[in-house]
Design brief:
The structure is a homodimer. The first copy, chain A, is α+β, with helices and mostly antiparallel strands. Chain A is built from six helices and eight strands; from the N terminus they run βββαβαβαααββαβ. In chain A, strands 4-1-3-2-8-5-7-6 form an eight-stranded antiparallel sheet. The longest helix of chain A is centred in the last third of the chain and has 12 residues, at about 160-175.
């Protein structure tokens, strides 16, 4: 288990990833951008991000850290580890960044209650497993950083798996867990 | 459930809290300090902390955020809420700051395995309950902030409850959970 990695998503006029579409799924959206860079491993503040990404002034900066899993149990971890691909596969030229903010009612649930909603009733982990190894995924936590989004999930997949990815997000959005999502933005990208 | 609150512990030559004793329980200690300030609600970096605490140059700065509970279940939360006192009671003139860092083996456990060690086998939550309402407690998470300590726990109690507090920390340190503690510093304070 690696130490938490801080990751900064820098949105602006350009970047390694080109924005194909973006919009709000729930709540307030984000200012539109044309490109995105993903910067790993150091805290990048808004006023220094321009230097990091080659002199462009960012439109916005979102930050999160990887962390230990909060819900996965041993058998589930074994299944995930056996099937999940790494980020950066050459063929995975499509990506999605989905920032999420959950409601106070979610955070007021206890750990065991959140697990019941997330997996026993919403099948979040089991559903994700069905789309492996096609869809690579990395979850970043922003809540403890004081960020506006609790979670930033980053996905990478090949163009041929676009329909599968759409199905995955559609299934998750139909679950009981998603009743606790107050704000969600969906950004699709390509490189 | 309140949003996470960032809290900065600023150690140096003086402060609202006077250091009565400090030392390493496991692993490397911290540079000795004479006083401590607890600053709530904003990120205080080392180079600006001096201004916050009245012009003194800090010896060290530790940061953490409050967060949702990670292990407590509904019945346990109800028992805690019914009995736990707030910080800042006038009679609670004794305090302890206990920074902890857990091993990679801890973070490699899954959520359910950590719960089994923490509560089913180590009785961390049940033991803490026995010392309520005498000992007020607030847990701060540093791991996602990239801090050197995973946890900073702050305790406040009246002088008459000093022996009870010693017993509490002694019992916790004797548990299976504490086998996962790689580094622990114990700082006792008064005001």
């Amino acid at each position: 288990m690696a130490s938490p990695l801080i990751v900064t998503f820098v949105g602006g006029a350009g970047g390694r990833w080109h924005v194909e579409s973006m919009g709000a799924v729930a709540g307030e959206g984000l200012p539109l951008i044309a490109g995105l860079d993903v910067v790993e491993g150091k805290a990048v503040e808004a006023d220094t991000a321009a230097g990091v990404v080659g002199g462009r002034t960012p439109r916005w900066v979102l930050r999160g850290t990887t962390s230990n899993e909060r819900y996965v149990e041993r058998q589930e971890r074994a299944a995930l580890v056996a099937r999940q691909p790494p980020l950066g596969r050459p063929e995975a030229t499509c990506a999605a960044l989905i920032p999420l903010h959950k409601s106070p009612a979610w955070w007021d649930l206890t750990q065991d209650e959140r697990r019941v909603v997330l997996e026993d009733r919403s099948r979040h982990i089991a559903t994700g497993l069905e789309y492996l190894p096609a869809v690579a995924r990395r979850l970043h936590h922003g809540r403890e950083l004081g960020e506006e989004f609790d979670f930033l999930t980053w996905f990478e997949y090949a163009p041929a798996d676009t329909d599968a990815f759409e199905e995955l997000v559609g299934r998750l959005r139909a679950t009981e867990e998603w009743a606790y999502v107050e704000r969600e933005v969906d950004i699709r990208l390509s490189r």
